[in-house]
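Researcher: Here's the sequence for the chain we discussed earlier.
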Amino acid sequence: MLFIMPHVIIADDNREFLELLSTYCSRAGWTVETCSNGAELMHLVAAGTAPGLLLIDVMMPVVDGIEAIEQICDHPRPLRVRFMSGGDSANLLAAKLIAMARDMSVGRNIFKPVERADFLSILDEEAQHLLGMGTETGAEI
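Model: Thanks. This is the structure I predict for it:
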């Protein structure tokens, strides 16, 4: 049996936070890609990188997380999404409602800053969820 490592794209304009989450993910065995705005996120998803999980900051320059998710929701592969914010929860709620209305699988929001143990628990939950979704990323082949 061969297991493909789960794949995550993290989109956040806070470079230090982005690097921290990337380190946590890679040390937990995830394949990681990062970007700093929604336009880059849309490009990575459209390029066929086949992530299983998207961690999206709702407030980013160029294209924010809400705008990005409106485009990404038509992606042909099943994706799991968690939105992140260090500020107002109204934007998190809006992003989550848009994604859910488009039949995307959306996990609980992540509030910044997030403790390492809490984030690792989130990654474990998401890896199990991806296995249940039967995506190529995180699935047994």
